[in-house]
Design goal:
- The complex is a heterodimer of chains A (514) and B (441).
- Chain A has 514 residues and is of the alpha/beta class.
- Chain A is 48% helix and 11% strand.
- Chain A contains 21 helices and 13 strands.
- Chain A has helices at 2-17, 44-55, 106-109, 112-121, 127-139, 141-148, 151-165, 180-198, 216-226, 238-248, 253-273, 282-290, 332-345, 362-374, 390-395, 411-418, 431-435, 447-459, 461-478, 481-496, 499-503, and strands spanning 29-35, 60-68, 82-84, 88-90, 206-209, 230-232, 276-277, 319-323, 350-354, 381-385, 399-402, 423-426, 439-442.
- In chain A, helix 8 (180-198) packs parallel to helix 11 (253-273) and helix 9 runs parallel beside helix 11.
- The longest helix of chain A is centred in the middle third of the chain and has 21 residues, at 253-273.
- By secondary structure, chain B is an all-alpha fold.
- Chain B folds into three domains: 3-54, no CATH class; 75-228, no CATH class; 240-441, no CATH class.
- Chain B is 73% helix and 0% strand.
- In chain B, helix 9 runs parallel beside helix 11 and helix 12 (241-260) runs antiparallel to helix 19.
- The chains are: A alpha/beta (514), B mainly alpha (441).
- Chains A and B meet through helix 7, helix 8, helix 10, helix 11 and helix 12 of A and helix 2, helix 3 and helix 20 of B.
């Protein structure tokens, strides 16, 4: 990789000669890199992106989505000061162009797959080596595919993978006996990591990455080449969600190992490259610290809601509403069991679940419908599909239920509080901090506790209204849209000023009031 | 004791109860402790780390998930329709020759065969071999219209009447491929049979062909407007142009292999068009067997540990698939060719030469290798093989070309000889092929 390093320094020198744009005259450019979300999918992260892009008009937004190739149009219309600067389509047949490997570089090039295994999949991968390998991909985009299609590339990969599988680190356990099918799957994933790194990024003043995974790859390469500051916002915790998905899957040990180690490698790389990590809740910050981020880099910026209207009392029809995708992370199975427990004692209650099945989780969706039938819930629990009016559906509820096993700071809870509705939820991620004093929080998967919470509130409309009003006040005080936008405005503004400002940035994150 | 007040033993029992197995590493243990035991993140992480230190980890064997084999429906109907279509189209040669002259038909076929094969291979690569290929074609109505105009207009402008005939033939055959992809193989066979009956009955052959081309074009317009499969949430993009162009070049090359040999006179009655039938039907059978390699390769590799050392014995099963496919193609071609010769003799039909049947069999074999190499993205190797074959056929010495189908045999043999080692090498290294060729297109 040595020649690549020389090239990289060359580019960095050229970049440093570029005159810094005068902030007062021109809008600073912010490159927002998304992963499977904005502007091609709806959901909490997409809504958050849209909030930032629409409201932080002092920045010129450049949106770079990373998506699976599907040929669908975007679901969000970008405002005038924002534009999509291409998109990175994973698993597509598209080819990267330019920068082919020179004859004298071939020996170095064939080590690319091995370098990615050692730096991304090993327990203690070397961040500098990863950045060097990924930067090589950016400088030789046309060379990535030939390297990965070559026998020598595969051979170097296998050698490195054997080293990783022979690692013995106490915390890491014993790697499973990964077979050749799984190895080939990992090889293809690493090819797409390399392709993602090879994708061009436009000139920009600050990089804003929306997940500590694939979205960080183009950003960390851009930073390595141009020295541009990088902000990372995590809504959930990428590694935690990857492990949760793997833990609940019926995949083989090797497939789980590959999925989680790759997610961990990408997240470690994102954390190492980011100048600031801005989780949306303190609970996520604890994970990020546990995963090795310097606490000084962490700035919590809570999600916020537009100032809600004065709430009205719940309708009193014993209606329980939940809003969220049908996804293993939302633990809809537990929700169905909670409904059954509630209906045993309170047969006139109605459960309405709003939200589509997550793409790729169709089998989970089918399992939810099967469980619904097996539990005999009939019309008392209805899957209502996607809603375009989450506030409206929450307003019609007497209580809002959430059974997730992983969350950041869920918008559905904030929407419930905005409409003055009490919440019964599992205490994952930032939920417990948010719901404090305005609902019931139980451990995840606690069917009896959740059902008891739902019944208690449904039986006592006065209590429901009191908790709802308290939630509304708390939302207005702590989780306001303005505070959220100010937090990111300060972070981005500090980033486009000389670097020291960002590092020394003080109390940007608001702390939850007691 | 950990900060959560759990001993490593207790923590492990909670984690194993929740996961139903040992945790992979400390992060999985921490996630389980937090998500299902309600232990706060910081405590969960330190408890999990202590837990992993306290136990001796054991590596577990693993076997990757195998792809499900897609069921191919209607293959029998498709093969039968194909056979009927070939026989019917073979019947067109005589009426067309009577109508416009044998020379015109000869020139038209020399132009139409490579053109059609190029279009069919290109369309298959970019659209028809893909789950939403027809829907993608339907999104390009102007492109389709332009292509139809070019297919008929360019040859007509260049070759006059021969070009008009070539364009109509290419349009009918290529449109037929799209109709077959839509599942209308019987209807397409019916159309060409009806056209044959009309021609044999004495209706003007060019007008009948024009009508057949028109009906096929309308059918294509309807076929690509058909709704996507229900429940398909995503329209996958078409394949890339560079790959489609390479496939088209291969199709054109295979077409050239068929028509460069001037000893094969395509305007001589129903022969040699019917002589294509044995090798084409054998290709169906051989090809069906060969496509199992996509399942057999992962099956062979599943459960074979990366840390193990049994790579040599892995080659056997995939290579057996290729050998089986070749054997099926050769044996069925031989059997059907003998049957055809017996039938031709019984019916006192002129056969241009038994060696032509051998030539067509070799072309079918070359085609099988081409499709294998193209399907795994090694089109360059296939182009080398087909190119070498066409070059040999063009440069064939007179003593070879005097034999009916001699040039064909030489060219196809060279193509087979160039590509066979590549095909066997590809399947003889199943892990490398799965990782570098099947997985990365």
């Amino acid at each position: 990789m040595a020649p690549a390093m020389a090239d990289r320094r060359g580019i960095a020198r050229r970049a440093s000669r570029r005159p810094r744009r005068a902030l007062a005259l021109v809008r600073p450019r912010a490159l927002l890199i998304t992963e499977g979300t904005y502007p091609y999918a709806v959901g909490g992260v997409s809504s958050w992106c849209d909030l930032l892009v629409r409201n932080l008009t002092e920045f010129e937004w450049q949106v770079l989505p990373i998506i699976a190739a599907h040929g669908r149009p975007p679901l969000f219309e970008l405002p005038a000061h924002a534009r999509e600067v291409g998109r990175i389509e994973l698993w597509s047949e598209g080819l990267a162009r330019g920068g082919r490997v020179r004859r004298d570089e071939r020996r170095v090039a064939r080590e690319l797959p091995a370098a990615l295994v050692r730096s991304l999949i090993a327990w203690d991968g070397d961040h500098a080596a990863l950045v060097e390998a990924l930067t090589w991909c950016r400088l030789r985009p046309g060379g990535v595919r030939p390297v990965f299609r070559s026998r020598t590339g595969w051979a170097s990969f296998l050698t490195a993978l054997r080293e990783v599988l022979n690692e013995r680190v106490p915390e890491a356990g014993a790697p499973p006996g990964v077979d050749l099918v799984e190895a080939a799957q990992l090889y293809q994933s690493l090819y797409w990591v390399a392709r993602t790194a090879a994708a061009p990024t436009p000139e920009t003043d600050v990089l804003h990455v929306t997940a500590a995974g694939w979205a960080a790859v183009p950003a960390l390469v851009h930073k390595a080449v141009h020295g541009t500051p990088m902000i990372l916002t995590e809504h959930g915790v990428y590694v935690r969600e990857a492990y949760l998905a793997a833990a609940r899957s019926a995949d083989s040990p090797g497939t789980r190992f590959i999925a989680t180690r790759l997610a961990r490698g990408l997240a470690r790389a994102a954390y190492a490259a980011a100048d600031i990590v801005s989780p949306v809740t303190d609970a996520n910050a604890l994970w990020e610290e546990g995963l090795g981020i310097d606490p000084a880099k962490i700035r919590v910026v809570y999600n916020g809601m537009a100032p809600p209207e004065r709430p009205v009392a719940p309708p009193g029809g014993r209606t329980v509403v939940s809003v969220g995708r049908i996804d293993p992370l939302k633990d809809v199975h537990t929700m169905l069991h909670v409904a059954r427990e509630t209906l045993r004692r309170m047969p006139d209650a109605t459960f309405l679940h709003y939200g589509p099945v997550t793409e790729g989780q169709e089998s989970y969706g089918r399992s939810c419908h099967a469980l619904h039938a097996r539990l005999g819930l009939g019309d008392r629990f209805r899957f209502m599909g996607r809603t375009t009016d989450p506030n409206g559906v929450v307003r019609d509820a007497d209580v809002v239920l959430m059974t997730s096993i992983s969350e950041g700071l869920p918008m559905s809870i904030l929407e419930a509080m905005g409409q003055g509705r009490p919440v019964v939820a599992t205490g994952v991620g930032g939920v417990a901090d948010v719901v404090r004093g305005c609902g019931v929080v139980t451990p995840p998967g606690d069917v009896m506790g959740l059902a008891l919470g739902v019944r208690t509130i449904l039986r006592d409309p006065a209590l429901a209204w009191k908790l709802g009003e308290r939630g509304h006040r708390r939302l207005t005080r702590v989780f306001s849209e303005l505070a959220c936008l100010d937090g990111y405005r300060d972070l981005l503004a500090a980033a486009v000023r000389p670097r020291g400002d960002l590092v020394a940035l003080g109390a940007v994150g608001t702390r939850i009031a007691a | 004791m950990s900060p959560a007040g759990l001993s490593p033993l207790r923590a492990r029992s909670i984690v194993e109860a929740r996961l139903g197995r040992e945790p992979q590493d400390m992060l999985e243990a921490a996630v389980a402790l937090e998500a299902w035991a309600g232990i706060p993140a910081g405590d969960a992480l330190s408890t999990a780390a202590a837990m992993m230190h306290a136990a001796e980890p054991k590596s577990k064997p693993s076997a990757g998930q195998l792809p499900r084999r897609a069921r191919q429906r209607g293959i029998g109907v498709e093969a039968l329709s194909f056979a009927v279509a070939v026989i019917a189209i073979a019947c067109w040669a005589a009426p067309l020759s009577r109508s416009v002259g044998a020379g015109v038909v000869e020139r038209a076929l020399i132009c139409a065969l490579p053109t059609t094969l190029a279009l069919q291979w290109g369309l298959a690569s970019r659209y028809l071999s893909r789950p939403h290929g027809l829907a993608q074609l339907g999104r390009r109505p102007l492109g389709l219209l332009l292509a139809a105009l070019l297919v008929t207009g360019l040859p007509a402008a260049a070759l006059g009447l021969s070009g008009v005939l070539a364009g109509l033939l290419a349009l009918t055959w290529t449109g037929g491929t799209i109709a077959v992809r839509r599942g209308w193989s019987l209807a397409y066979a019916g159309l060409v049979v009806a056209a044959s009956v009309a021609m044999v009955a004495g209706l003007p052959a060019m007008w009948v062909l024009g009508a057949a081309a028109l009906v096929t074009t309308v059918a294509v317009a309807v076929a690509v407007r058909a709704p996507r499969a229900p429940g398909a949430p995503v329209v996958q993009p078409p394949g890339r142009w560079s790959r489609a162009l390479a496939a088209a070049a291969l199709g054109a090359g295979l077409g050239a292999l068929l028509v460069v040999d001037r000893s094969v006179d395509w305007s001589l009655g129903t022969m040699p068009a019917v002589a294509l039938l044995p090798s084409s039907l054998a290709s169906f059978w051989g090809g069906q067997h060969l496509w199992r390699f996509q399942v057999v390769i992962p099956q062979t590799l599943s459960g074979v540990a990366v840390l193990g050392d049994d790579a040599r014995r892995l080659a056997a099963a995939p290579v057996r698939i290729l050998v089986g496919a070749v054997a099926r193609l050769v044996l069925l071609t031989a059997a059907l060719s003998v049957l055809l010769l017996v039938l031709a003799s019984a019916l006192a039909v002129h056969v241009s030469g038994q060696s032509v049947l051998v030539g067509f069999g070799l072309v079918a074999l070359a085609t099988m290798f081409v499709s294998l190499l193209e399907s795994i993205g090694r089109a360059a190797w296939a182009i080398a093989g087909v190119g070498a074959g066409v070059a040999a056929e063009i440069a064939a010495p007179p003593e070879v070309t005097t034999m009916a189908g001699g040039g064909l045999i030489l060219g196809a043999s060279i193509a087979v000889l160039v590509m066979a080692p590549m095909a066997f090498a590809v399947l003889g290294r199943p892990a490398t092929t799965l990782a570098t060729s099947i997985g990365i297109r």
